[in-house]
Automatic annotation (TrEMBL):
Segments forming a coiled coil: 55-102
Record keywords, A-Z: Coiled coil, Membrane, Transmembrane, Transmembrane helix
Keyword Membrane: yes
Organism for this UniProt entry: Halomonas korlensis
Official protein name in the record: Type IV pilus assembly protein PilO
GO aspect biological process, one term: type IV pilus assembly
Domain of life: Bacteria
Length: 207
């Protein structure tokens, strides 16, 4: 039968009278269409229930592989730099130990105040007061602030500040104020806040 005749049979077919039980007598083109649709549905169902989940798992595995490769490269770089990192860590620990030695203990703060007083006297300054404030506890150290007020000429005041900065214990200087004490401005009054710090060993074991 020709293709033209088969197409004519399809056009003339009464679709409402089709019965699936009589599908063997349907035009072969209709049977072919139905077979193609059935196979398409079967393949779609197989893909949906079997292939799609596997494809999703494959994508997840590829993403996980990518992250593992990145982690591996990072670990490899760290391993390659491990000797350098150890040297840097040892250097930092050595510097930290040196800085700790420069921090006075709580018992050494009065001695530090005496050193500051001696520095002022050495530079011929008049000491109005050196007055301790209440200590302030931080995470890894205790901050001990104190107020200093001395009088003298500009050069002696500058030498005193340099002397305090050069003490063997760490003393930081803040909030400077210079006021003239006579008409010609030769005599000055220095007021400032100084701070020293005590290390807290117990902080090493805290989370």
């Amino acid at each position: 039968m020709s293709l033209k005749g088969e197409m004519r049979r399809l056009r003339e077919l009464d679709w409402r009278e089709l019965d699936i039980k009589e599908s063997g007598s349907w035009p072969w083109s209709l049977q072919a269409i139905c077979c193609a649709l059935t196979l398409g549905l079967i393949f779609f169902g197989m893909y949906w229930y079997l292939a799609a989940p596997r494809a999703e798992q494959l994508e997840q595995a590829r993403a996980e592989e990518h992250e593992l490769r990145k982690a591996y490269r990072s670990k490899a770089a760290q391993a390659a730099n491990l000797p350098v990192m150890r040297e840097e860590m040892e250097s930092l620990e050595s510097r930290m130990a040196t800085l700790r030695e420069m921090l006075p203990t709580g018992a050494e703060v009065p001695s530090l105040i005496d050193n500051i007083s001696e520095t002022a006297i050495e530079h011929q300054l008049t000491i109005d007061f050196i007055r301790l404030r209440s200590p302030v506890a931080q995470d890894y150290y205790i901050e001990q602030p104190f107020d200093i007020q001395v009088q003298g000429d500009y050069h002696r005041v500058a030498a005193f500040l340099a002397g305090v900065a050069g003490l063997s214990r760490i003393v930081t200087q803040h909030d400077f104020a210079l006021e003239p004490q006579d008409g010609d401005g030769q005599q000055l009054r220095l007021s400032m806040l100084a701070r020293t710090y005590s290390y807290r060993p117990s902080a090493e074991g805290s989370p």
